[in-house]
Design a protein that fits this description.
The chain is mainly alpha-helical. The chain has 13 helices and no strands. It has one domain. The chain is globular, with a radius of gyration of 19 Å.
């Protein structure tokens, strides 16, 4: 029962993440990627510190180390994906980001020596096929933005494995869990500021920022609904499911993003996308059916 509740919570935050593609893509015409990431997680840090200020007293050396490492992974993934979005199409970015599920078992194998379950292997194959059919990435050759997004997917795979490991032993300590969330935001902000400093000193890249209403809306949405809430939920609940399973759920993001776009009348779905969506949904349902038949 706890696993099903956790997976429902992870599915809900996947929907929240799905809404970021449209708002970020729009905002990047007026604000530089590193500046956007710094503002996004700066606001998330402020809100998180206010909400969980009492939990900050529980930070010890271990929590600080884990929060810093998770935050650097967390921030690097978002920085690279945001930079990648300026040089690649949204559909290609969505497809590449979704492939992080294929990297999770490899990371687990390297870090923990675990073996891949048969149901997880089948789900991964279905996810990759479904994502390809659904997103229809343009075959325009490899671009730098594609490479950045691939690296971000690998980094998030590492993040998924370690957040699962490092939250298991604080399962009943909500203060340490809350502190871990705040520390992740702090590390992500620090990384974004370092990125801005490097651009400033080298003269490469842009640090433009226009605080228009669309940019402010994007920052608020991404900070609160796509950072504070999801990071809290992921830190609290991912420990109750398998990291590969979590990655499979998060790979539903492109599907959720398109459903949102269709719901507001911004897009329509082709037959190919409907087929891909069906395969993606099956990738979630099939392992549960197999588990129930086995009595897992």
């Amino acid at each position: 029962m706890q696993r099903h509740r956790a997976e429902l919570a992870l599915t809900l935050i996947t929907v929240l993440w799905a809404g970021t593609f449209v708002v970020i893509k729009s905002a990047l015409t007026e604000v530089a990627p590193s500046v956007f990431v710094a503002l996004r997680f700066g606001l998330a840090l402020l809100v998180g510190a206010m909400i969980w200020r009492r939990s900050l007293a529980s930070i010890d050396r271990t929590t600080l180390r884990r929060g810093s490492i998770l935050g650097l992974l967390f921030g690097a993934g978002f920085l690279l994906q945001t930079f990648g979005l300026t040089e690649t199409s949204a559909s290609t970015s969505a497809f590449i980001t979704g492939t992080m599920v294929a990297f999770v078992p490899l990371v687990q194998r390297i870090t923990h020596g675990t073996r891949l379950r048969g149901t997880h292997a089948a789900s991964i194959v279905m996810i990759l096929l479904g994502l390809y059919l659904f997103t229809s990435p343009e075959l325009l050759g490899v671009r730098f933005g594609d490479v950045q997004t691939v690296i971000s997917a690998i980094i998030w795979a590492v993040y998924l494995v370690y957040i699962d490991t490092w939250t298991s032993d604080i399962r009943h300590d909500t203060h340490k869990q809350n502190a871990l969330v705040v520390l992740q935001f702090a590390a992500a902000v620090a990384l974004a500021l370092v990125s801005m400093l490097i651009f400033s000193l080298t003269g490469h890249g842009s640090l433009q920022m226009t605080l228009s209403s669309s940019v402010v809306l994007a920052i608020v949405y991404c900070a609160i609904f796509a950072s504070v809430i999801p990071t809290f939920v992921q830190t609290r609940f991912q420990q109750y499911t398998h990291p590969v399973r979590a990655g499979i759920i998060f790979a539903m993001e492109p599907l959720a993003a398109s459903v949102i776009a269709v719901a507001i009348g911004a897009e329509t779905l082709s037959m190919r996308q409907m087929l891909g969506g069906g395969v993606l949904i099956a990738a979630i349902i099939v392992p549960d059916i197999i588990a129930m038949r086995r009595g897992d």
